[in-house]
Amino acid sequence: MKASRIVGCTLLHQVLVSAIAAAVPVAMPELVREEGLFEGLAGLYALSMYAGAVAATLGSERAFRRLGPAHASAFAVGLAACGLLLFVPLGVAGFVLGGLAIGLGYGPVSPAGSYMMAGIVGRRDLNLVFSIRLAGAPLGVLAAGLGVPPLVAALGWRGALAALACALAVPAMATLGFARRLDATLPAVAPPSGGVLGAAREVFAHGALRWLVATSFLFSAMLATLNAFVPTVASALGGLDLARAGLCAVAAQVASICARLAWGMVADRLLSPATTLALVGMLMAAATLALGQVDRGTGFAAILAASAFMGATAGGWGGVVLAQAARLAPPGRVGRIAGGVMVYNYLGVMLGPPVVGLVLAATGSFPVALAAVAAVGAAGAVAALRLPR
């Protein structure tokens, strides 16, 4: 089966599930305005979602063995769409249960994609190919940033989330026929070993993978902050309305999409992957500090630029990390190693937005909270320098 069709299927699933996950943060300014909610609930949502993602990733090998990786990926998107419907009743329970259900669908999609792409690990442009697939994440967030505000204006936030859930589940189910043919061509998934934590322990026991895990853990906290808080920062600090705050999220995701491809090419052609990731880490720390300087006197163009800078750095590293996980994996274990790396990735994501939310609640200052997060990006850059050249 052609590699382009496999990449296309994994890319579509990533776009769909990422759009579902991003819909709530994009709609958050309207929830704050209409329901009087605290902005920090965006952190509670992210914590719940990635708790579900960790749990699903730890159990994904069993799902892949039972259903096949491509089938499991399609059904996971459908589960995430069902989770979005749980927000319609609202309340804090909606942020917990809805986020958890979305995470249970979000978690398996990336390791399933690595299982499906295991046959192309020897390519010289591996960083770029993985970056193309991982570009589905910011593409999905971009779709949410463009689609949610007009849906909210037309249907209200409850109707918008319900309509989006139905619209995004349909194309995922439409891929089931291709998934059946693809799963028939893939090698059988080996029985899980080492218990439910086996893959997570395996990647941490491998010296080079351990530093890759540390880099991904720290960088993912930055990426989660981007996805959870850019619209809210633009609204709360910059005084923007929902539509213009959504445009800031769009700017961040457009920059992220372009940057993922660019950083993949840099890692393949110009710098080593380790040096590339270290450079990204230092730039994302600077971008976070720049975003924290936004206030009501900042022009809209400057806020857009700060959002794009954040997107190009905090959103640009994923393909390079997973390409290195594939290269460092023992033969026949690409998918398992990818799943183990993603567990730590999701754990890092769980910490970023809640830390911002807690510091925000304690200090009432977004700049202080974002400055604390910037230190995380610098630490990730240091960890990246320990990777093999």
Question: What's the SSE blueprint?
Answer:
Layout: H1 3-35, H2 41-58, H3 60-67, H4 69-85, H5 91-106, H6 109-116, H7 126-134, H8 136-174, H9 176-185, H10 198-205, H11 207-236, H12 242-269, H13 273-291, H14 300-314, H15 318-328, H16 334-363, H17 366-384
Question: Keyphrases for this structure?
Answer:
389 residues; mainly alpha; Growth Hormone, Chain: A; 17 helices; 82% helix
Briefly, what is this?
82% of the residues lie in helices and 0% in strands. By secondary structure, it is mainly α.
Can you put this structure into words, describing what you see?
There is one protein chain. The chain has 389 residues and is an all-alpha fold. It has one domain (3-384): Growth Hormone, Chain: A. The protein is built from 17 helices and no strands. The protein has helices at residues 3-35, 41-58, 60-67, 69-85, 91-106, 109-116, 126-134, 136-174, 176-185, 198-205, 207-236, 242-269, 273-291, 300-314, 318-328, 334-363, 366-384. Helix 2 (41-58) runs antiparallel to helix 16 and helix 11 packs parallel to helix 13. The protein is globular, with a radius of gyration of 19 Å. The mean pLDDT is 83.
CATH architecture: Up-down Bundle
The Cα radius of gyration reads 19 Å
CATH topology (fold) name = Growth Hormone, Chain: A
Fourth CATH level, the homologous superfamily: MFS general substrate transporter like domains
Tally of domains: 1
Helicity level, as a percent range? over 70%
Q: List the helices and strands in order.
A: HHHHHHHHHHHHHHHHH
Count of helical segments?
A: 17
* Helix/strand structural class: mainly alpha
Q: What is the CATH domain class?
A: Mainly Alpha
Which word captures the global form?
globular
**Runs with pLDDT <50, length 5+?**
none
The total beta strand count reads 0
The residue-averaged pLDDT reads 83
Strand residue content: under 5%
Work out the oligomeric state of the chains in this entry.
single chain
- Give the termini distance in whole angstroms: 33 Å
- Sketch the major β-sheet: none
